[in-house]
Amino acid sequence: MRRGWNDATGWLLLGLAAVLERVIASKTAVAQWKLRRNQVVRAAHRRGVSVEVLAARLGLTPSWIRSVIRDPRKAALEEAA
Fold first, then answer.
1. Calpha distance 53→59 (Å, rounded)
2. Residue 33, exposed/middle/buried by CB under 10 A (0-12, 13-18, 19+)?
């Protein structure tokens, strides 16, 4: 009987570990994608694309685009939270 409980507990813990990995990896991946997006937004702005056009195409507010242009890491952290 003890072996049965150990097997069941092992599988349960494995399932929990898999779910936790997906959640943690997911948040990390989202944060990294937002940092990349912010870098591209800054690059587009440096090359002459206006804040209003960037906001309209990305579906974000102009004030958010301005904050991304000023400090992309801070904006990504705020957005992820």
1. 10
2. exposed
pTM: 0.65
- Measured in whole angstroms, how far is the alpha carbon of residue 17 from the centre of its chain? 21
Q: Is 20 exposed, middle or buried (0-12, 13-18, 19+ CB in 10 A)?
A: exposed
Backbone angles phi, psi at 45, to 5 degrees: -65, -40
Of residues 75, 78, 74, the one with CA closest to residue 65: 75
| Helical pair 2-46 and 72-80, crossing angle rounded to 10 deg | 140
* Average pLDDT estimate for 57-73: 88
**Residue range 2-30: mean pLDDT, rounded:** 79
Rounded to whole angstroms, the Cα distance separating 30 from 80 reads 8
For residues 69 and 42, is the Cβ–Cβ distance under 8 A?
A: yes
């009987």: which residue's tokens?
A: 1
